[in-house]
Amino acid sequence: MRIIRIKRKFVIATFLFAASFFACSTLVEDMELPFLTPPVIVHAYLYPGMTEINLVLHHARIIGHDDSHYSDDPVRDANVVIISEYGDSLLLEYSGQRRHYTASTEHFPVTAGESYFLLITHPDFDDVKSNTTIPFGHKIFYPVFIDSVDHGYRREFFVDGCIDSISLSSENYFQFYAEVKGTVTCWGEEGTNEDVFNRDLFSFSPLIDATIESRITQTGNFSLPKRTFPDTCTYYPITIDLKLFSMDFHSYQYLESIEEFLDASDNPFVQPQTVYTNIINGYGVFGGYYMVERSFSWDDLLAEP
Q: Are 290 and 135 spatial neighbours (Cβ–Cβ below 8 Å)?
């Protein structure tokens, strides 16, 4: 599976730094700036059941520096070690083909409730450090059909993802993702044709703490077209594959800050935001999560009162 899908790729910070630094470079290209080693950007997520740990380690770009050496350039010769709270260590090796560090978890299983520590050493920059604790998964969640709206050329469906919050703490670090799967049948001059379709249901947004009925909810929506030309087609959902990610504090804050950063970048009236990081002597995130997936019937969803 893709790590934290969320619709935001988790190497996005590399893009943010490269894009923002490049935009500023034209403003300072005629200035004499002291050379400073650029910071490194780290991305790695741990979760139970993973068979391989992958860690991305890149240089950020220097403002006003014309050399492309540091532009989205991976650090290839670092010593990257992950250490468990019990003292077990795992050395990650650099893969030139994949352009990141990797290691098998066959003898280093990632376990919920345990803490892990990251140490990256390199002669050209200060030691990079971080830590994360893998959260436990939450299994009591379900979708609720809210309503549908006919827009003429398409119908939009609204579905809530709900978490039973009775056993939860006050901290809310959850995120839903879901995929609606179904069939589409078309009738035309050449006969009947049947195919499958899928739609994403949730984008990244903080969950809303709805105290009504002691549950936490996140509202999602998807649309299905109403086709009558050249063929008449009927779309019918069959299942909703609902995933609940229980994130550690660092992962959640990092992803939320990226969302705010992007919103501020698109709006000149919003105060610029700073992207959260839990990396010492660097940027990015060393995070953890637990994912639980359940499948629900669309017919059963509509039949519920």
A: yes
